[in-house]
Fold:
Amino acid sequence: HPSAAALSFQNAIRAVVHELSPSVVQIQTPQGLGSGVVVDADGNIVTNNHVVGTSDRGPFSITAGAHSYSASLVGRFAPDDLAIVRVSGADLRPAVFADSSKLNVGDIAIAIGNPLGLRSSVTQGIVSSLGRTLSEGPGGGVLAAAIQTSAPINPGNSGGALVNLDGQVIGIPTLAATDPQLGSQAPGIGFEIPSGT
Structure:
């Protein structure tokens, strides 16, 4: 039988997923699929600027649970690869954001998003490093003070939620490392924009 500590840890992750999944939405844009996090009761959703892509008008389609909505672009801040889109008239559940300055290496990190279009997928790891500075590559910005985690991050996770065991958002998954020798994704190295940003 699993130990009490193992069961407690499992139950904590279940509780976080149950609490946060309704606040993590799928975003369909002309460029493809990504994720977003509901930030307030007005229907504002934070995502990555690269998820929104080059389109200022959309169309942006938001899927939350069994419902789909149209969204409009509120604004973008390309240097930090962040954007806000808004759904009007929908009853969306806002997430709670943590103080990312209080993170420590070794903290549990849970990623919730839509990798490869697989809605509401969950991966888990730890905070591997803090304060990373890295380039997003051609046409992208430079992420300062990024969180590095071992939670697997795949295309479609971008703009979703990185969450602590208290069910609070600590970062926005943005980038997976690539292995320059293999030219493919390096497993277990993901980067997130901290919630403080």
